[in-house]
Amino acid sequence: xxxxxxxxxxxxxxxxxxNLTGSILEGVGVAYLVPALLVWAYPDEIKYVPYFxxxxxxxxxxxxxxxxxxxxxxxxxxRQAMVAAAFTWLLASLVSVVPFMKIAHMPLLDSxxxxxxxxxxxxxTMMSNLQSYPKMLLxxxxxxxxxxxxxxxxxxxxxxxxxxVAAARLYRAEARSERILPNLVNTAKVIFxxxxxxxxxxxxxYYINGMGLFDALTHSMTGLGTGGMSTHDESIGxxxxxxxxxxxxxxxxxGAVNFTVHYRVFKNRSLKPFFADxxxxxxxxxxxxxxxxxxxxxxxxxDSLANALQGAVxxxxxxxxxxxxxxxxxxxxxxxxxxxxxxxxxxxxxxGSTAGGIKLIRITLMYESLKWTIESAILxxxxxxxxxxxxxxxxxxxxxxxxxxxxxxVAFLLAxxxxxxxxxxxxxxxxxxxxxxxxxxVGLSVGITSPAMPAxxxxxxxxxxxxxxxxxxxxxxxxxxxxxxxxxxxxx
Amino acid sequence: xxxxxxxxxxxxxxxxxxNLTGSILEGVGVAYLVPALLVWAYPDEIKYVPYFxxxxxxxxxxxxxxxxxxxxxxxxxxRQAMVAAAFTWLLASLVSVVPFMKIAHMPLLDSxxxxxxxxxxxxxTMMSNLQSYPKMLLxxxxxxxxxxxxxxxxxxxxxxxxxxVAAARLYRAEARSERILPNLVNTAKVIFxxxxxxxxxxxxxYYINGMGLFDALTHSMTGLGTGGMSTHDESIGxxxxxxxxxxxxxxxxxGAVNFTVHYRVFKNRSLKPFFADxxxxxxxxxxxxxxxxxxxxxxxxxDSLANALQGAVxxxxxxxxxxxxxxxxxxxxxxxxxxxxxxxxxxxxxxGSTAGGIKLIRITLMYESLKWTIESAILxxxxxxxxxxxxxxxxxxxxxxxxxxxxxxVAFLLAxxxxxxxxxxxxxxxxxxxxxxxxxxVGLSVGITSPAMPAxxxxxxxxxxxxxxxxxxxxxxxxxxxxxxxxxxxxx
Lengths: 492, 492
Ligand SMILES: [K+]
Ligand SMILES: [K+]
Description:
Two copies of one chain form a homodimer.
Chain A: H1 10-36, H2 49-66, H3 78-95, H4 98-102, H5 108-119, H6 135-160, H7 166-178, H8 184-208, H9 213-224, H10 242-255, H11 259-268, H12 272-276, H13 278-300, H14 305-320, H15 335-347, H16 360-378, E1 388-389, E2 392-393, H17 396-424, H18 428-439, H19 455-469, H20 473-491
Antiparallel strand pairs in A: 1-2
Helix pairs in contact in A: 1-2, 1-3, 1-6, 3-5, 3-20, 5-6, 5-19, 6-8, 6-9, 8-9, 8-10, 8-11, 9-10, 13-14, 13-15, 14-15, 15-18, 16-17, 17-18, 17-19
Bound molecules: potassium ion (2 copies).
Subcellular location (chains A, B): Cell inner membrane
Keywords (chains A, B): Cell inner membrane, Cell membrane, Ion transport, Membrane, Potassium, Potassium transport, Transmembrane, Transmembrane helix, Transport
Family (chains A, B): Belongs to the TrkH potassium transport family.
């Protein structure tokens, strides 16, 4: 195995990890207190307040104690930042299980699954008969998804899109030219404001189209956060409203667009930056043929054209944006429809958005890269090929990063599919669909995910949601740090 | 679209193409004469001789007339070499259709499919009830597969593994250190001798294990050439002989090993170079878990352990070596078994062998590349990472070539799967299996390929076999040259 230890000082890490743990606990603790505020609107739910207030307070106090020296952290290196991001999602999910265990009486594994699914914006669920649960618990899921969504946007723009990485070059360049992101605190603030405004727009649009206020709030939060958790078992299909479907499609697309694009749209009061964005263009480039073919496959099995088109558009957008809202039972879709949705889920939304998957910028770069390869084979030696996408020039290193990420993503996907097929005798289309959904943080399901699934498969899906959300490398670095560095560090 | 024309002189190309066409016609013409010689062993087949002798003579004469100036070709550039390789397989297949049309009374499209399948070493077939056909026709298929096998090895070591390409670095280095390949003519000669000797070994082993001489000859040729065409509908399963299965496994593995490795084994009279070869090692690295899981999945559906293991070993080797021999009906395999075999077919055999697929060296490099990426994320800046596989150091450019090839391969695979599913309502597992088989030049089938399949799907599979055999880029360069350069050239 690789010999990392001689390069790395593990005692530095312990200090960073302790402070980080403290900050996560404080953050989740504060988050815990918000659902309890719903008691003003729903006074009969006062009996559930302790299940939020107590873990919230405990988490804040313990967190503050752990991170009492946090002012001393000055310089966090890339490896530490990656490990921290991976650890944040693991720990936040663990801290958040209390209401599921105490109110819904779910086992620890199922509760952890639910929390990981919520924090990663996946939306696969261990719960059914959702309307029977208190509003406070349903809000808790939506709230985690909303926070997880803004969280990953900030992590993506700071840690995941790291220096020397293709997506970084693209978005740093844009950010700098706009002078919106001179430092991290400002970045966070501007993006958070945009996120909040868009959420309120969603609540308003849902509300005027006939949703109740609670449903409007939760679905706007999980729609824009591309989380996809609903307050109804039938998801958006519960409302049987084309207008609500349309609002949802709008929110899902907004959530899957890089947030620096939103900034420019807001600032310039023009839709131009939206349609000029290369990731937005490619999203539609993939959606149009996929929607046509899915609709065609639905008509082939006897659906009406209008129904087929509505289902195809909604579910294709839900898949590529990695939201996971449904308006009908996807387990009844023909295999080719499942396959096409799975491909969209693997592609995913824009880098720098709340969406998951491989991300559109990477797929775009690979597609362009193929053209460059053919050009270089055809043109005589010495002919100069410009590796440009839009206004940005990419190096071979950028392209390599993209491809190596994609390879790793596909390798995990295949391993997950194989495991699912061997474990629950699912056929290939269903296994691919469900695994693409978990790893891409989508949440669409053909029914493999349920409380009845084997415990080891739940564990595998938790792992897939986690690595998918952190774009794999962070989690691999985390795992290697824990298993190879920690033991050595402790022995010193 | 790209503007190639200002860089390329098309009139040069016409000259090269005409001479090349002549050479191909001469070569296929000579090949045509060989099956006719079988008349000595089977005198009652004399009535079929004209169907080989006449197209053979015509082809030789027309070819000689076309290439009468061939001595003038001095310098062929990379693009021309790639186009030539792609064109060779297209034209050779077209010239070879006569016996199928005249003896088997097959339509042109089916005959062309059969010839493309034979020349590319795929083995998918439009024919059934094979034993009813004359020996001469059955030999013609095997003979094309054997020639196609040695042909692709030579093309791979000269054109496909082009300068600056990872696999080239590896095998040029080996070749040079062995001093076996100072020039192209010597390369061809040494490799041809090894190929011939191994074929004769195969004939002998089949014969002493109870095969008739004709079957021993044809199966040794299509086994070592990893073509997989049989003289029986049940393929190797016809013989019901564990010994013959074992000989076949031996031949398939030999055919899937880089031929410079064979050279070293022969020269050093030692098996060390075989087991030291990185591609051989990775072949077993993939085979062992795949065989275990396929056998497990067969036992799960009620097979005996002995039967399951025998089927798993045989078909896994047949898949990864891209041979396509079967010993049982794969359409009855559980989906997870089909999926695993499809993955092996996509991986494929060794570069510089007769096998197809992505090739083991590329998969190896991608796997190692992932490790390097993680190392570079974990180690502090400035730490030097050695990009070594075995004794060879790879550049980022090498890795990029490998990944961009793999991406393109997978893109074509997905397009083929989608087309198959939409066109014949196959489920995902079957469509993936059949397309992986066609594009990987394997020839295993779950039954989608048959004379009854739609004409457009036959055309798609012909295309997939062709691009798979030429490692895609050659064929893309060919297509671009024909559609974008030729019209401009003609207009001048
Ligand atoms: K989701
Ligand atoms: K084959």
